[in-house]
Amino acid sequence: MHQLLVSAPACRERIWHRLTYGLLTTKAVAMSGAMAVAIAMLLQVFWVSAAHAQSSGHPNMIFILADDQGFGDVGALNPESKIPTPNIDRIAAEGMIFGDAHTSSSVCTPTRYSILTGRYHWRTRLQKGVLGGFSPPLIDREQLTIAGMLKQQGYRTGAVGKWHLGWNWPLKGGGLADDAGNFTDAYEKGWAVDYEAEIQGGPVDLGFDEFFGISASLDMPPYVYVRDRVPTEKATVEKAFHRKGPAGESFEAVDVLPTFTREAVRFIDSHANGDKPFFLYFPLNAPHTPIVPTKQWRGKSGINDYGDFTMQVDATVGEVLEALDRNKITEETLIIFTTDNGCSPAAKIGQLEAAGHDQNYIYRGHKADIYDGGHRVPFIVRWPGKVKPGSRTEHLVGQLDFFATAAEISGADVPGDAAGDSVSFLKTLLGKAGSPPRRSIVSQSIGGQFAIRDGDWKLCLCPGSGGWSQPRPGRDDMSSLPPMQLYDLGSDPGESRNLIEQHPERVAKMTAMMREAIDRGRTTPGETLDNDVDIVMVKPVRNGKRPLKK
């Protein structure tokens, strides 16, 4: 009966009515009035405790991942921000800001892999760049994901949004699509896909009970929504949201963020008062290209379309918060807002800066770079009753640490071969940590170049940005630069002074740390694990001919 009472409010009301009515009328005839009232009171206490059974157990968890939104694009993190973000700021005011939080990569596919697996992406075949819209799965079906782990702990799991981790598109003539990350080939390969057949190796094969979203970035075909395993419509026409390719006739880029928002709210409404806690992974398509704010938001920032789209992202966060409030589960829900890498040059950084807006705050570089502007990101957590409102920590954390943290919260026993790079930050979150959960973390640029932290020290195992900013590999003449870069972020958070010549012993120590991280197949205690491929620690960097700017 307890299970029935918890399962749904309407069901509880019906059972309560029948039990109390029966006891206080037909059965109560044979009882004293005092006994009938006592039993009724007992039933009421039982009903109330059942109604709140979920709140006394594991919290709901929501992980919102914006796409290409910089550290400085959040008002709570950048006092001089010119783009209003009141809803993200609300999470910060009611929760904790992590000021030294990092993605595993400065581009999107690898970041997503590390979040969902608790394992560095560079242990896989993906040594640089990102997947395409027709790429095969990066996550093996046998690999435990955070969704699979939470599902084992009794959670209802859902994903809404941009997947971009590959899955198996079936072809009309048999076989599977594989664009091998070649976006040019994706056009022809896309027309050979059978859009009525079931996809394999996607979210619902990796621990998620349900999924609604798109295959990859919104500027990569195919342009169709997928629900669980099957597109919601066939790709029968050609469209181009930067890259041309197969599309559903009704699919329009401007509608994607509002559609994802409705689906996320529907998921919350559907499971808010169920008999299980829920986990919602909500990776947005925005403010990544194509930068397409809806009519309601165009011009709102007074800067450019990127500013408008970022405000629309904040509004999406607001709708999620409103759904929690409306369903009266705010107190029972842990929510995280973060982004997959720094702001992209596609945001027209020059226009933003001319308006006085520093999209990546005080940090050097942007999306794709090894510098902190590429991978230091907003990471804000609210958990009412557990996390002190308006708090902030400078403890070093990675997004891949959410796996171990969720496992500790839910009481999961993670197998020794899973989440080998994830460290729980729960004590920091609860204000009970005497020291940071980690002192070291590895980051990677789009070109595959590594950086490693040791406290405030950061070693970049390459010259230049490793990405798109100056000094840019393959474009700028870096022949006169040292082969590596060493920065003291404590005194130089903008990475302006390379100290490699002054501290050779530290360079040797941190290079050895990186070597060990690779060779052990993990960075947490436990038996050595295998990487999927051989990993080159110091990758060659193409030298260009353009003189460096002074």
TrEMBL record:
The keyword Membrane applies. Pfam families: Sulfatase (PF00884). CDD domains: ARS_like. Belongs to the sulfatase family. InterPro entries: Alkaline_phosphatase_core_sf, Sulfatase, Sulfatase_CS, Sulfatase_N. SUPFAM superfamilies: Alkaline phosphatase-like (SSF53649). Residues 59-411 form the Sulfatase N-terminal domain. It comes from the Bacteria. The chain crosses the membrane at residues 21-47. Gene3D superfamilies: 3.30.1120.10, Alkaline Phosphatase, subunit A (3.40.720.10). PANTHER family: ARYLSULFATASE FAMILY MEMBER, ENDO-4-O-SULFATASE. Keywords: Calcium, Hydrolase, Membrane, Metal-binding, Transmembrane, Transmembrane helix. The keyword Heme does not apply. This is Arylsulfatase.
